[in-house]
Amino acid sequence: xxxxxxxxxxxxxxxxxxxxxxxxxxxxxxxxxxxxxxxxxxxxxxxxxxxxxxxxxxxxxxxxxxxxxxxxxxxxxxxxxxxxxxxxxxxxxxxxxxxxxxxxxxxxxxxxxxxxxxxxxxxxxxxxxxxxxxxxxxxxxxxxxxxxxxxxxxxxxxxxxxxxxxxxxxxxxxxxxxxxxxxxxxxxxxxxxxxxxxxxxxxxxxxxxxxxxxxxxxxxxxxxxxxxxxxxxxxxxxxxxxxxxxxxxxxxxxxxxxxxxxxxxxxxxxxxxxxxxxxxxxxxxxxxxxxxxxxxxxxxxxxxxxxxxxxxxxxxxxxxxxxxxxxxxxxxxxxxxxxxxxxxx
Length: 345
Hints:
Largest sheet: 6 strands, parallel
CATH topology of the largest domain: Rossmann fold
Strand order of the largest sheet: 2-1-5-6-7-8
Radius of gyration: 20 Å
Number of domains: 2
Distance between the termini: 16 Å
């Protein structure tokens, strides 16, 4: 099958959307599918305001149309709602082609936190963007319920996975040379305002707090919290070692749609402390692999008693093979317009 995937989030961007889309692309290729990724790599870009690590593609419609026509896909999936996603959506609507989309990020909440745009405006925009898709793939049951409440009508649950061969338990001594007091309470992820990191860093906890990741809020947080260790992982091997160094993974976000980093931590045998909100409710739920509490300090302290074996067992429930099969099942084949599109190429 020839599958075109349009995404504004692509390597080397360090975020969960890239991890999900990139892993699915790799799995699809391993299954023998031909994949075209239309990403910011194909266009001139400018840094996104307030988040310079994210490139915004300039005038992508003409090139997107050419790439789709040359590739002649059997199905088209739009992973993000940025300029590349809009260009692919416009092409599909102009040519009467079915397509699918995904809801990876709560941009309405992010925009509200950054520039106070009303959340209802953001969801009205997102609803319009996704309304013409045959299926909107959403990562968790809690997000499904939230979007249904915002009057999204074409949504289906599409969970995420974790590479348990890469993310696995290992030695906990990676940071011991820094002589930091134990226990280590760690966070891994984008350092942005929507992650609510002060909700973690303001906690009165024993031991040390460690933040691993980059993002536009990093410099300000480093100045505000001089006693916190900030690190950026150099590749997945170092990332795994940093996960394993932790004793508790603290996830303070209240707006994530899933929180893939929680799965990565649990795959390394590190328990999770989080609020009982979307994302943690689906990843941790009623299991014993973490503690969900509106008192995040209490959750972090209680999580320290959870065994690595329990965490690892929960992570093993999330298979990328299942994620990839679901993705293929949800695609909207072009069918009748397939042959004309092939001839046009």
